[in-house]
Structures are given as structure tokens and as C-alpha cells.
Amino acid sequence: MAARDPKEAVEFANSFIHLFTDTRGLNANLDKLRVVSVSFEPETTVIGEMTVEERHCNATNTLHGAMTCLLVDVFGSLSLTLHNRDKIPSWSLDINASCLRTADIGETLMLVSRCKKAGKTVGFTSVDIYRKADGALVATGRHNQILIKSRL
Fold it and tell me: How many CB atoms lie within 10 A of CB 135?
């Protein structure tokens, strides 16, 4: 059953992110990402924050497109997981990101992930990434995933 208590969902979400970041791989770059709120109406929505660091950037010291895709990947998975803990995302069918503006080192990003639909075997999410200081949309993405039975 999906968690419907927003406070419990935020705690679960931050634990979920920790599982991804407790590694030496690419996901380790998300160790400063944190969930600040979760709501379930009208759709499961997860809001998080992360400050851009040098390790997240390209040669021009702005947020790297690959980092943007990683954020869409993990945050999309998170909203699907919170939507229904009986089924969890397993692998990606389709993932895309459109980078619209830059984000510089030191800027705080606000991420908003929405579970658009979760069927029996496939889930669909959208993720928008904003600069927190001015609300400018930095990137928008979609992540569609296969869902499998959960043990959570």
C-alpha cells in the first residue's frame, strides 16, 4: 500500500535516495539531494533540493546534461515508488531531458517529480528542475519505467 502520510513519505524518500548514493558509482553524485515534501493529491508529487557542485558540472562550470538525466532518472523512480509501494520501478523504457537554461556552481535546484500514471506493468513520470533563487525552469524530463512486485 502506498504511504499516504506526507511526513513518513519524506522520511522514506530520503532513505530511498540514500540507497542510491551509498555507492562509488554515478549515483554517489546525489549524496546532497534531499526530499523536502511529498503530496499525493491530485497526483503523487515529490519536491527536492540540491545545490550544484563542481562535480555536477561540465567544462563551462554549469550543470552537466548527464547530471540532469541522472536527476530525472532517480527522481522519476522516487515518485513512482511513493505512488504505490506494491510495485516499484525496475528498468527504464524511455528517459529524456530537455535542458532549457544553465545552473551554475552554488545555485540551489528545486526538483519536482510527478507520477503521471502507474499501470500494472508501466509507470510514467515527469520531472521539472528549477533554479530556486528565481524559479527559472532549467530542465524538464520524462521517465517511463517497467514496474515489478515490491518487497518494500
Answer: 8
Are residues 141 and 113 in contact, defined by beta-carbon separation less than 8 angstroms? no
* Cell output for 15: 532513505
With CA atoms as reference, report the closest residue to 91 among 17, 151, 149, 145. 145
- What are the beta bridge partners of residue 117? 124
pLDDT band for 20, please (50, 70, 90 cuts). confident
Confidence check: pLDDT of 71 > 50: yes
Q: What's the rounded Cα separation, in Å, for the pair 115 and 22?
A: 25
Radius of gyration of the chain (CA): 15
Cell 542510491, located at residue: 20
Spatial neighbors of 49 by CB under 8 A, at least 6 apart, are 33, 34, 36, 108, 109, 110, 111, 132
pTM score, two decimals? 0.91
Residue of 72, 134, 69, 141 whose CA lies nearest to 103: 134
Instruction: Grade residue 106 by pLDDT with cuts at 50, 70 and 90.
Output: very high
| Cα dihedral 143→30→3→150 (10° resolution) | 70
Query: Whose CA is closest to 19, among 7, 33, 6, 8?
Result: 33
